[in-house]
UniProtKB/TrEMBL annotation:
Keywords: Membrane, Transmembrane, Transmembrane helix. This is Type II secretion system protein. The chain crosses the membrane at residues 21-44. The keyword Transmembrane applies. Pfam families: N_methyl.
């Protein structure tokens, strides 16, 4: 007697059929482009403001140098005060002084003057204001030539 065996061939399973096509929708692409655009805008703005800040800092340092140079011109102030103005390149400056009361008196206590130096530059106009105290210059002693 012959036996018959039924052999069933098993084919590989078919991949599941997607209910829709694979990929990004138009809305997803638009959102991604909007996010990318905002990110690039912020990056551009940050790098641009960094360069602007460096230029502002250099201008400020130059103004400090101009102001300090003016202070170094005089270690004392004449009795009439110190009022002057001028320019140094793109920097305009003015110096003014007024007597400063300490409430102290005596032969070894010099009168003081409050000195204000204003250095201005740039558009929009920026200003640096320096304040200090300087002693009043002693008048020459009688009979002695300066």
């Amino acid at each position: 007697m012959t036996r018959w065996h039924c052999v069933r061939r098993v084919s590989p399973p078919l991949p599941p059929r997607p209910s829709r096509l694979q990929g990004f929708t138009l809305l997803e692409v638009l959102v991604a482009l909007a996010i990318l655009g905002m990110s690039l805008g912020l990056l551009y703005r940050a790098s641009g403001s960094g360069a602007r800040n460096v230029a502002d800092l250099e201008a400020y340092q130059r103004a400090v140098i101009v102001g300090q140079s003016l202070l170094d011109l005089r270690s004392t102030v004449p009795a009439a005060g110190w009022n002057d103005a001028g320019t140094d390149g793109d920097y305009a400056w003015r110096v003014s002084s007024a007597p400063f009361s300490t409430g102290l008196s005596g032969p070894n206590v010099p009168p003081l003057h409050a000195v204000e130096i204003v250095v201005g530059w740039g558009e929009p106009r920026r200003e640096l204001v320096l304040h200090t105290l300087r002693p009043e210059r002693k008048p020459p002693e009688p009979g002695r030539t300066p």
